[in-house]
Amino acid sequence: MRILIVGGDAAGMSAASQIRRRQPSWAVEVFEAGQRTSYALCGTPYYLGGVVREIDQLVTLTPEQFARERGIPVHTGHLVTAVNPARKSITVKDLATGQSRDEAYDRLLLATGAEALMPTGLEPGPAGLFYLRSLDDAENIRRAMGKAKSAVVVGAGYIGLEVAENMVEAGLEVTLLGRQPAPIFEEELQALAAQALSRPGLTFRSMTDAVGLSPAPSGGLTVAVSQGEAVPAAVGVVGAGVRPRAELAAAAGLTLGVKQAISVDRFQKTSDPFIYAAGDCAESYHRLSGAQTWVALALGANRQGRVAGFNLCDEPEEFPGILGTSIMKIFGLALARTGLGLEEARRAGFPEAVKTVVKQHSKPGYYPGSTPVTVIIIADRATGRLLGGQMGGTLEGVGQRINTLAAALSTNMTVKEASGLDTAYAPPFAPVHDPVVIACEVAAKNLKG
Ligand SMILES: Cc1cc2nc3c(=O)[nH]c(=O)nc-3n(C[C@H](O)[C@H](O)[C@H](O)COP(=O)(O)OP(=O)(O)OC[C@H]3O[C@@H](n4cnc5c(N)ncnc54)[C@H](O)[C@@H]3O)c2cc1C
Fold first, then answer.
1. Which residue minimizes the CA distance to atom 6 of ligand 1?
2. 3-state secondary structure of 418
3. Model confidence over 352-370: pLDDT tens digits?
4. Tens-digit pLDDT profile for residues 143-162
5. Which residues in the chain land under pLDDT 50?
6. CA of 367 relative to ligand 1 center, distance in Å
7. β-strands 333-339, 89-94: how paired?
8. Is the CB of 304 under 6 A from ligand 1?
9. Is the CB of 141 under 6 A from ligand 1?
10. Which CATH number, 3.40.50.720, 3.50.50.60, 3.20.20.70, 1.10.10.60, labels domain 326-448?
11. CA-to-CA distance for 253 and 153, rounded, in angstroms?
């Protein structure tokens, strides 16, 4: 048996490791276009800000370690240019020599990830404009930040926000362009995000799109915008969203699904019985809506890779699904969410979804370090079921708290049931009635009202 994997990061290497563990005698080989494996893209904004000092700290296992310690050969610098399902082979280009060759597989895993969306007029090319999608990108941006005094960041989603924050921390004067900050959150939390962005070193221009780009006469670049004056800066980073990297699959005739991600079943199998897909390039099953969705997050990618590994070894394993649980930091503010937002819930078949907003404190008022926490609960009036939760507050106040709601959602609790959770209490950690429990209690009353 020969299993080939395209893509050597979270999903691909989780699968490779699982296959090696389950079937030590089978051949498993990975083809990776870049030079690194198992790296933490999530840490790259913090490399820009100097929190992470060396880029290699973001690499969990190198290709050499995979070969030596796990017996998994990784062909780095090898771009897979075609999948040929009829011949059960892939076409691989060695980027060092320019030579192409075909490699035969018995089973194939596509773990090609996602790629940055490039708004019209902001295509890469001009000196000083970057996209952050690899460790090489991060190194190039940090190098460009070296002598720069100013930066423009396009997009106020989580990548744009994290990049802007870290550039400010590194001492640059940053202009952030976007519609609203943190668009995946409810408006009450977007207002908190806007407050967090109001600080020295950062100008947030809301409802402003970047529409074009030109080299600035004095060096650097100038970004033309949909309203107001153009923004000059030494460095520009675009964080305008991502899309699944699914061209190989599409060209091979595999079925694509939500947002053109590779369509997979709960076992990560594609429309071809010998080809699996996992991670950001593939769809995910949403635990609440029961529908396929597309969410590009690290835990789901790792987990899908692991599940694919089992199934590629003929051990049936079902992907449990995602809730889209995520968390982000904007200076001292943490925003977190799990499950569905209000509009998402209504679109997903819960027309009676209701939102409850509650403000509580992270600890008893008398205990030092108690801070406000805003908790938003989305619940279904028809059934009382908890559909989603969001939170805003300090890092400590929000940090692990969102996971209580994620666990409650995973077990299909009603808000009434969640309001009865036996949560931990001691003054240094939480008030006797945790903000999550209180918010669910208020939501349960709201549903009745
Ligand atoms: C700046 C940033 C911050 C992030 N922060 C967070 C966070 O805080 N929390 C979170 O949950 N998620 C975060 N993410 C998302 C997370 O990094 C991804 O969900 C995760 O990396 C997906 O893993 P993957 O293996 O599916 O794809 P990727 O990590 O994209 O890996 C795909 C690999 O496939 C290779 N490849 C692609 N096409 C080919 C080909 N044709 N031939 C050979 N090789 C190919 C690529 O070179 C790449 O190495 C962040 C992402 C970015 C960019």
1. 42
2. helix
3. 999 999 999 999 999 999 9
4. 999 989 999 999 999 999 99
5. none
6. 41
7. unpaired
8. no
9. no
10. 3.50.50.60
11. 37
